[in-house]
């Protein structure tokens, strides 16, 4: 097989000679041979697939460290590499949406329009008159020896955490307690920073105080003015009932969700996948795994919000969740009925949920 000069290989791979030299230094794409006299780099055609993959991944903005991991995986398991790329792009889209919401929020705050552009003014009603009616509950279930779920509902905060490992109950409780402390202390433009700081403290605490196999997921919403600030890590979920339609407003940080995003399994197949509980993000003391989704969500009078652990939504089907959210007269009724349905379905896991209605008083 003939050798290619760095210039010829650059043209074939659509990478510049400068980029090829950098990728050689980083160990991403070493030349097939380096002349010992003049230092010229030579490549072979068999290296082109990896080089082109590097070029594509850099064009979509993937960090160099991740590029190397994907390229190595591609050489042994191309479908698995495809799943990693799909999961990466899903995260990019999620984080981009969160940054867009934050930019909108900052523009509104600085321009003196805290209600946000595009939000219709409510005739003869002030946003200051909107309140939350709320309820929360947990149950150990019928199989687990202890309850490691924590749920909280208050005038400004909804939170659900699902602990795991030997100290899971402590981890979930600490996560919710850290956010409860924000109800009175954090408002306005500081709310997202407050949530991010609290989650970081909880994660560091889990790393310092656990045996290494413990942690928690967390989904919480803190009301500020006409918006809810959402923080989400793991596979606890948040749902919204608005105008009779129920939608999920969080994205699971799990292996099977990344497989769904990549199109390798369907949502129905994911429910019985052997690795459906494998988390990609959680508050387990690891900086790499604890990256939360943070965003702002506009609130409309009549909204009903449900936060819940996987002990609910893996047992109670989406049709039943929709029915309860649509028909329960009060948040406490919805919480009681949803937990009862989970227990009627066998109660294989702890179950937690929090429900709140946005109402004008």
Structural commentary:
- The chain contains 13 helices and 13 strands.
- The N and C termini lie far apart (79 Å).
- About 4% of the residues have low confidence.
- It is elongated.
- It has 361 residues and is of the alpha+beta class.
- The protein is 42% helix and 22% strand.
- The strands form three sheets. It has a five-stranded antiparallel beta sheet with strand order 4-13-12-9-10.
- Helix 3 runs antiparallel to helix 4 and helix 12 runs antiparallel to helix 13.
Helix/strand layout:
Blueprint: E1 3-5, H1 6-13, H2 17-25, E2 33-34, E3 41-44, H3 48-59, H4 64-76, H5 78-110, E4 130-139, E5 149-153, E6 157-164, H6 168-180, H7 182-185, H8 191-209, E7 215-224, E8 227-233, E9 237-242, E10 245-248, H9 255-262, H10 267-270, E11 293-298, E12 304-308, H11 310-313, H12 318-327, H13 331-344, E13 351-360
Helix pairs in contact: 3-4, 4-5, 5-9, 6-8, 12-13
């Amino acid at each position: 097989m003939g050798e290619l000069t760095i210039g010829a290989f650059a043209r074939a791979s659509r990478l510049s000679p400068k980029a090829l030299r950098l990728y050689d230094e980083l160990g991403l794409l070493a030349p097939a041979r380096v002349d010992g006299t003049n230092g010229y780099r030579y490549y072979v055609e068999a290296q082109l697939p990896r080089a082109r993959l590097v070029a594509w991944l850099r064009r979509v903005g993937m960090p160099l460290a991740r590029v190397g991991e994907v390229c190595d995986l591609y050489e042994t398991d191309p479908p698995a590499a495809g799943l990693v790329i799909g999961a990466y792009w899903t995260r990019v889209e999620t984080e981009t949406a969160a940054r867009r919401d934050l930019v909108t929020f900052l523009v509104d705050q600085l321009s003196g329009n805290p209600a946000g552009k595009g939000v219709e003014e409510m005739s003869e009603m002030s946003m200051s008159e909107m309140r939350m009616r709320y309820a929360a509950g947990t149950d150990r279930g019928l199989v687990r020896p202890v309850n490691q779920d924590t749920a909280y509902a208050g005038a400004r905060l909804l939170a659900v955490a699902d602990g795991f490992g030997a100290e899971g109950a402590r981890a979930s409780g600490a996560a919710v307690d850290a956010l409860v402390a924000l109800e009175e202390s954090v408002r306005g433009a500081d709310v997202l920073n407050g949530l991010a700081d609290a989650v970081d403290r909880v994660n560091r605490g889990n790393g310092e105080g656990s045996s290494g196999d413990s942690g928690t997921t967390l989904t919480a919403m803190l009301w500020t003015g006409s918006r809810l600030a959402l923080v989400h890590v793991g596979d606890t979920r948040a749902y919204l009932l608005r105008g009779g339609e129920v939608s999920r407003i969080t994205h699971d940080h799990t292996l099977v969700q990344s497989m769904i995003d990549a199109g390798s399994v369907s949502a129905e197949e994911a429910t019985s996948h052997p690795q459906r509980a494998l988390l990609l993000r959680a508050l387990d003391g690891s900086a790499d795994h604890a990256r939360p989704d943070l965003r702002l969500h506009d609130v409309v009078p009549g909204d009903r919000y449900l936060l819940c652990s996987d002990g609910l939504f893996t047992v109670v089907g989406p049709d039943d969740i929709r029915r309860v959210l649509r028909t329960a007269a009060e948040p406490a009724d919805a919480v009681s009925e949803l937990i009862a349905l989970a227990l009627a379905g066998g109660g294989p896991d702890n179950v937690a949920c929090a429900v709140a209605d946005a109402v004008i008083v």
